[in-house]
Amino acid sequence: MNAVAARPHRLTPDQVPDTVVEVLDRDEKAELTERIRRLLREQDATLVAHYYTSPELQELADASGGYVSDSLDMARFGTECASSTLIVAGVRFMGETAKILNPEKRVLMPDLGAECSLDLGCPPDEFAAFCDAHPDREVVVYANTSAAVKARADWMATSGIALDLVRHLHAEGRKILWAPDRHLGAWVQKETGADVLLWDGACVVHEAFKADGLRVLKAEHPGAMVLVHPESPADVIALADFVGSTTGIIKAAKELPADTFIVATDNGIFHKMREAAPHKTFIEAPTGGKGATCVSCAHCPWMAMNGLRSLARVLERGGNEIHVDPTIRERAARPIQRLLDFARSRRAVVLGNNDA
Ligand code: 13P
Ligand code: SF4
């Protein structure tokens, strides 16, 4: 069973900022990089970046002893890293997850305006009412949610482990309430056969990928394989040779026997894909372009808010610290920690960037 019970939660165009990518010349990049590396050392800080951030940030994270990965692995790394300050280059839920798991650490973000359409499309009060209306269901929320929504959940999930977790719950006879991404939830339901009730939210980046355009592109590149993040619509997923998390997609690019890949996820991932498979060719899956319904054109407007300039500013002037209400934090920590323990017990903690 796969039912959608909540009302649609999509952002209006004015809620989605333009995607503005930081442009730096060589001298500015070198100067900022040096300055940030010094500030990181002086402040006992470690930079943890998501695969969708700029190549400059990812290179800096790698070169300064930090980390670049997917959302689950970023959370795990934060708990193992000894630094007293974590700089999370990603979106707000990633910073909040880091703070929830490491309340004693200072967690900073280059830009606190870096939201996520899934998080914004799941207001905590409405979500709590939805859960109250279905008390017989195990509440599983995607990492891309606020601390208050996590506080209402039994489990947190990420795309890297959602199938494993829901298969496990289904085998225990549990019915699932899944939020907020309906595409990811529908894919999980289809793959596991579990009884899943869906919240109707979506990612503005992934929901824009188009199956029609993808079919045309496949025909133009007959040898290409298609890699899709499961936040994409079902008709796009149906055309995929591989469906999985960002780490899974990078690994697939390296291991699958093709020289060309069409990729349906944020194009920030191309940096690590090219590192992992330098001789292969990567093509963006079509979104329909600005004139159609493409809001982001395959690059998350909120991820793009992270840059070297904003990172330097935050280290120099302070501010942009993540705070989570202690009561909410305590409750939100449970579903996250439960997932990390589950992942460890399955030995399914997603491979880090060194393994991708
Ligand atoms: P991953 O957990 O696969 O990194 O995805 C996070 C995300 O925001 C995808 O849009
Ligand atoms: Fe959220 Fe989509 Fe951006 Fe990921 S790509 S952070 S799901 S808006």
Automatic annotation (TrEMBL):
Its EC number is 2.5.1.72. The keyword Iron applies. One of its GO terms (cellular component) is cytosol. Its main location: cytoplasm. InterPro entries: NadA, NadA_sf. It is found in: Cytoplasm. It catalyses: iminosuccinate + dihydroxyacetone phosphate = quinolinate + phosphate + 2 H2O + H(+). Keywords: 4Fe-4S, Cytoplasm, Iron, Iron-sulfur, Metal-binding, Pyridine nucleotide biosynthesis, Transferase. Gene3D superfamilies: NadA-like. One of its GO terms (biological process) is 'de novo' NAD+ biosynthetic process from L-aspartate. GO terms for molecular function: 4 iron, 4 sulfur cluster binding; metal ion binding; quinolinate synthetase A activity. Its cofactor is [4Fe-4S] cluster. Pfam families: NadA. Catalyzes the condensation of iminoaspartate with dihydroxyacetone phosphate to form quinolinate. This is Quinolinate synthase. It comes from Plasticicumulans lactativorans.
